[in-house]
Amino acid sequence: MCSALNEEDAQTCVACGARLSPLVAGGDAPLPEFPQEPPETPSDPETGDQDDWLARIRAGVSSVEEPEEPPAYSESPTGSPEWLGGLRDADDRYNQGGPDEAIPDWMDEFIAAGDEESAEDVPDWLARVRSRKSTRSGEGEPAEGEEEQDWLNRLRDESAQLAETEGEETTEPGLEGLLPGAEEELDRQELEAPTFEPVDEVDRPTPPVLDLGILSDMPGVPGSPRSSGAPPAEERLAADASRVPSGGFGIDWAGEGELTESLEVEHDSGEQEHVPALVSDESGERPIVEIDESVLDSVELPAWLDNIRPLHAPPSEEPAEEEDASGELDLAPATLPSWLEAMRPVDSFRPEIEIESDDVQQVESAGPLAGLRGVLMAEPVVAIPRTSSATAARLEVTERQFAQGDLLHRLIEEEERESVILRRPGRRLPLARWLIGLALLVAVIVPPSINRLGLQGFSRPADIPREIAPLVTLINNVPTDRPALIVFDYTPGYSGELDSVAGTIIEHAFSRAIPLVTLSTRPTGPPMAEALLSRLGTAYAAVNGQSYLHLGYLAGGPTAVQLFAISPHDAVLTGFLLPDADEQAGVEIGPEVHSTVWEHSLLQPINHLSDFGMVVVITAGTETARNWAEQTHPWIGDTPLIMVLSAGAEPLVRPYFESTVPLVDGILTGLPAAVAYQELSGQGVDAAQRWDMFGSGMLAVELILLVGSIYGAGAWLLSLRKR
Amino acid sequence: MGSIDLLGLLVLLVFIILLFVFLAIGERRRALFRPIEGYEALERAIERAVEAGERVHLSLGTGSLIGTDSAPALAGLAILEYIGHMTTLSDKPMVVSTGDGAMAILAQDSLRNIYRSAGALDRFGPNRARMLGPTPFSYVANLPILLANEDVSAHILAGSFGAEGALAADFGERQGSFTLAGTDDAQSQALLYATASYPLIGEEIFAAGAYLQQDPSHRASLQVQDAVRFILIGGILLGALLRILGINL
Amino acid sequence: MKLGSYMLWAATAVGTGVIVLLGYFVQLEAGAPTGLMQTVFGLRLLIMRWAVLLAAVGLLLGLVNLFSVHWRKISDQEQGWTYSTILILTFFITLLLGLVFGPDSPIVLLLFNGIQLPVESSLGALLAITLTLAGFRTLQRRRDLVGLAFIITALLVLIGSGPGIVPNASAGYGFFSGLRNWLAQVAAAGGARGVLLGVALGSVVTGLRVLLAMDRPYGD
Predict the structure, then answer these.
(1) What is the mean pLDDT of residues C149-160?
(2) What's the pLDDT at A298?
(3) pLDDT tens for residues A25-35?
(4) Between β-strands B2-4 and C26-28, what pairing exists: parallel, antiparallel or unpaired?
(5) What is the pTM of this model?
(6) Quick one: which of A242, A251, A278, A397 is 20 to 30 A from A298 by CA?
């Protein structure tokens, strides 16, 4: 009842007091003898005739139509609980007992078993049943309903006889303590042979759950599983449970009382008969529910049993009459979600809940609910337990669920697994880049070959920029007694262009024997200056230390430019690649003579920036050009500032040249301007030697850009058309 | 003797006053700026890189810390701070490269502050900011190695670049990375327009703080730039008109 | 960072910045500066020399950082560690040679002229190829008016800059040459001036933010 755990041989529940072992019939223990005649029950004006309660159940419609008052509760003199008193007032339908003559089929087992046993081992009641059966068989098979009534009546008679002969009464503790008047009640009531009503006469509403626990587990009830040491409850439930008497089980519920002879339990030893609980034994045998009929007769059923419709007969005995279902509740069958269905153990439960119609619902054939229709089947959970198989917990898994579970499992595994860094797929070969590079390479290699073959290359530029002529004039006017400062402020990456452009002015200065002093704000500047000057000076016999000198690296970037402009001696102390004394014939110079580079003869006239003859800044960056122009302007004085730039820097530096107050006095941008300068000055060949390669390269670039533009424009137009 | 350039001081004072005025106004009325595609795509690119377990690379340029080269690099620090906060706790935090030693130290210090503010100082390492080369082309020569080895998927150039900036952007494009490039040099900007997916033209690089961090001071700075720009436009037009009319000031 | 140290760094940065900035507004004429201007100018020069020293130290630290990064690569056997090994070897060889023989020794010049100069020149050539390819793909990547104007301008400037599709001696070359000059010296120069102004404005504001401690590269 309350799901509390109890000892195996406990007869009542320690928590709620419910009887743990039902009243069973059969089993190893000798069954109590049923009285020959049903005990006479005192006529109770409230309950009416309590005889043949089962017969009344089988009365069917007539019984249902007759509104029967639920038995009024009469409190026992001893003050028993109200609910127990209510049990006394059972419906007459359920007090009719079993059939008088009909012997149920399940009894055949006992009869057959008894045939094999000796007469001494056969209990008396079974012997009586057999005798009755044999008599019956000789007389022919009566009607089934009559047969049921006959055998039950015989059982009652036998039990009554047994109660009279034995005459001992025992009481059970526990419930009798709760029911002080139980024995008196038992004395007063006679066990009646349960009479069975035709099952087709019993109305069957929605099968109620009949709680027989209290009825079957009552201690002190003769014949109860606990008191008689009957087999486990499951076996007992398998027995005919339809022998619930309408008038109760013949127990004195209220009194302390002594049990009737029919309910007499052998307690000679003082031990309580074991009423095993409803658990499966290892043998898996169907337990036999032993229910004392006299007990069943005296039990007062609760009022709610009034609503229970009479049990239907077995399928062969189903009545032809249909029940009036007007009073039934029309409930829609519940449906379980698929995932819940899948969690059902396959072996233990039905695959789905089925609410069968009244026609197909089976009639309960055992236990106190015998004869009722719609009773929840005890089998196989309780009545027919089976040892769960190894796969009892196997779930029904659909294919989709399996896939989902597998996906989840893989996801979890991936979280734990260290992911391998996937290499990017190999990039496509940069064919376009290779082709363009090849085209440009061919373009710059071919012209020298053409020149060697004596073929004429590209013609010299016809238009000379307007700033070239003033520049040529400016350099022609630079004094030769003072050195010119050449600033190499570009990286080696721009040396391909700027070496040729700057070489024009350097060659012009070499041609006029203007001493040159180099400086750089980059670490790579001085080596590049040495490389260029030494290469170009070869043609003019320019020697380091005589024709040119290197001041070296000016650290500090743009900040250092202003420092140099303000005070050159403070900004630069040591030079770069100063010649040794041994290399200079006739001039004693060396580290022991000069403490600073400024003591060199070439630099003797220089104290300020304005002392230089001219300042030439060679750079590819606009920022460097602007720095020199802006930082040196306050201190350069009349010394011309010339910018030698890459073609790309021209737009940003030219404003300094073309402003009303120009900061830059001369500008030379790009190879075309350098070639034009050489053409105009008649000095230098370095730029002109690169003119053909420059031209062919330009041609290749222009063609490539044209092709790309045409292709891109065409694709663009096509995409516009598609839209 | 010397003289003080009062005009210059006056212009400087105007800048400072406008900065504080816009800072005060910005508290109440939020200014609207035009959308810059590069900054809008930057957030998505960083999120995508973080989600994909790839790295974000920021280059602060090849310019020096002293001089005018430092201005775009300082603007790049705003981008560094923005990206740093987004990638500090990712699987592959960002890496910063420079072409100058002092700039590399500055980047290291900025990253260290970001990691400290995120409570992940233990994840910081000195190699998070590095100098790839002392010269511009040596820097660019090392760049493809860094992009390939570090599995960079977002390549941002924000600093002073010369023509080598075009090579740097092209290396990122060849890597298949999201490339956002900006510098202060107009010549380099033209090259970046041709090679980078998202170039920053003009002074858009100086708007990084206002667009990314949404800091009130950055927004006020951008408004000051716009205000002074319109003043200069007015002055240029007025000067041109006067010159046309023959009035020499 | 504690409040005290933060205030110290902020005060140092702001103070030095203000002194250097004010020094730029001092125009020195012939003769030695005197009085307040002398003080300001002298401080500015001093701080600028310190900045130069710090820049050199910064370069040294950057080289140390470069070395440590590649050394870690070698230690961890990361991808490309062989190139890091070559870099460190050449780094130390060049450093030793420069320290022993001097930076202007013939052997160092030989290394420069034989390795660094050709390598960087090649990168410059690679730049030309890259820009040509970028021009080839301009209209495929940027299908807008700006992209169209970009490629058309590039073609016109190239044609007018030197020999190519249009020979120098032809009559049409003068037109393209003049057009190129106009594009480079008027249109491009004007646009570049505008860009320069904007960049200058941004630079001024960025510097002011540092001077006013709104931007704190030295940490919070």
Answers:
(1) 92
(2) 60
(3) 554 445 545 54
(4) antiparallel
(5) 0.63
(6) A278
